[in-house]
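Can you please make up a protein's amino acid sequence together with its fold in C-alpha cell form to help me picture the idea?
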Amino acid sequence: MADNNFWKGAAFGTAFTVAVAAGGYAGYKYAQVPADGTVLSDSARVQKLEYLEELIDTYYLEDKDEDELAEGLYAGLIYGLGDPYSRYYTAKEYQEENTSSQGSYVGIGVVMQENKEGGVQIVQCYEGGPGEAAGLKEGDVVSAVDGQDITESSVSEVASMIRDSDAENVILTVHRENADEPLTITVPITDVELPSVFHEMLEPKIGYIRITEFKGVTEEQYTTAFQDLKDQGMEKMIVDLRDNPGGLLDSVCDILRQILPEGLIVYTEDKNGNREEETCDGKNALDIPLAVLVNENSASASEIFAGAVKDYGIGTIVGTTTYGKGIVQSIRTLSDGSAVKLTVSKYYTPKGNNIHKTGITPDVEEKLDSNLLNKSDYSHEEDNQLQRAIQVLENDGESS
C-alpha cells in the first residue's frame, strides 16, 4: 500500500468529466507492510493473486504482459467499490480524459472515424479550426500522413501521429468524392479549442445559448456568446442544458457568477462533514428574464446551474426532471502519470438541497413530443420544449 506521498494532486470534478488542478507531491513511496484493514493486509488474498498468476503462466495461450496485468489489478481495486463514477486511469487514459475535460488540445481540429475501405474519414471539422481553414471537408478520407500510408492504422494511431509530431504542419493525402485525383492538403498543427457553447438570436429579441458540456474553455465561450447576443439587442435569454452531462465544477461556477445575485452558488460536504463553498459576489447579476431548458439527461454541473437558478428564483426551469447526480468526484494524479477518480462528497444547492437520485423538478413541465424522440435533428419550430420556454419568456417569465 502506498502512503499519502503516492498522490500527486487533487481537484474537484463532476459527473462524466473531472476538474484537474495543478501542483501536488513529487514521487511516490510504498509502505514496507500493508496497514491493517487494507485489502493486501490479508495474506490469503495475496496468495490468491499469486495463484491466479501461476494459472496464467501455466495455461494461458498467449504471452502475458506484466505491466498490463498490473494495470488490471489497479483498475480492479477501484472497480470493486461498485461506484460507476470512480475509476482508475492509465497514464494514456488520463491524458485523453484531461484533454476532453479541459476542451482544448494540440491537433488539426477535426473528428475522425475509421473508414471501411481503409484510412480514416473526416466526420466533423470544428468551425474556425485549422482543418476547416486548410480546406478539409466532412466526408474526406485520409490515406496518408506526411507520406506515410495509414490505410491499416486505427483512428487513435493516426491521431497520435498528428498530435505527437514535432512539425508545425501535417501533410494529408485526401480522397474526396467526385475528385479524380487525391488531394494534398497541408494543415497547421495548433492549439484547438473544442466548441461547447452555441448561440443565436431568436425572435423577438430572445437570445438562445446552448451549453453541451462544462469544459475548461466553456466559460470564455459563454462570455463571448452572451456579449454577442447583448450587442444584437437581447432582452431575454434561454440557456439550453438538455443532454448536458455535466463537467467541471469551476466552469459552471464561473458562468453562474455572471448570472446570480450575491450569495452561495453550491457547497459540498465530504464523509467527515468538511464543507467547501462556492460563492458569487453578485456584481454581474443577470437583469433580464431567463429560462433554463433541462431534461432527464441534464446531469451534475447542469443540475448545479439549474438548482442555483431555481433556488434564487431568477429564472424559470422548463422541461423534464433532471438526471439526479448530486455527488462530486475528485481526481488525483500519480507520479507515473496514471490517476484515480473517486467519489468524495455530496453537493448541495444554495437552499441545502441534495438532488442525488431525485433530480431537479422543472417549474414548467414539458415533455419532448414523442415524434421527435428518434430524431437527431429538428428545427426550433418543431422543438416544443424550446417553444414553451419562449412562451414563458414572452409572458415576462411567468411560469403559468
User: Anything to note?
Assistant: Residues 275 and 341 are 20 Å apart (CA to CA).
